[in-house]
Amino acid sequence: MTFQQAVQSVFAKYATFSGRARRKEYWYFVLFNMVVSIVIGMLARAIGGENLERTLNGIWSLAVLIPGLAVVWRRLHDIGKSGAWWFLVFVPVVGWIILLIWFCQDSQPGENQYGPNPKEITTE
Questions:
Q1: In the beta sheet, which residues pair with residue 112?
Q2: If DSSP states are collapsed to H, E and C, what string results for 67-106?
Q3: How many CA atoms does the CB half-sphere of 40 hold within 13 Å?
Q4: Which residue among 12, 28, 109, 117 has its CA within the 20 to 30 Å range from the CA of 102?
Q5: How far apart are CA 22 and CA 118, in angstroms?
């Protein structure tokens, strides 16, 4: 899966919380979000200052909130965990560390209760 395919896949499954998402899909989307936020910040500061930057980054954050949550949910499904484990983000420090470790794990081999392994699905 290329960078472009990963980002397109996340937006194509905008609010799809079922199924599985590979590590590449998740991490490429995280990278895409960071790059867009940095570009928005630089352009907005050059044009209109901090207020414009905050406004545009706020709009961007709202635009990617649902697909971001959906890809997190699917990523957790890919390692055999319920998407509800995302709520660990509310546990200070430890929750983020656990989620980071899980997001770095390889896919659960074969099919699990959330669907077939996306690595094993061939597209022609």
A1: 115
A2: HHHHHHHHHHHHCCCCHHHHHHHHCCCHHHHHHHHHHHCC
A3: 17
A4: 12
A5: 6
The reply to whether 118 falls in a domain is no
Backbone angles phi, psi at 112, to 5 degrees: -125, -170
Kind and range of the H or E run holding 10: helix 3-12
Number of domains observed in the structure of the chain: 1
Please report, as a single letter, which amino acid is at residue 15: A
- Model's pTM, two decimal places? 0.89
Its domain, for residue 24, covers 3-104
CA distances from 9 to 22, 91, 118 (A): 11, 30, 12
pLDDT in tens, the chain (124 residues): 899 999 999 999 999 999 999 999 999 999 999 999 999 999 998 988 888 999 999 999 999 999 999 999 999 999 999 999 999 999 999 999 999 999 999 999 989 999 998 888 755 4
- Residue 117 located in a structural domain: no
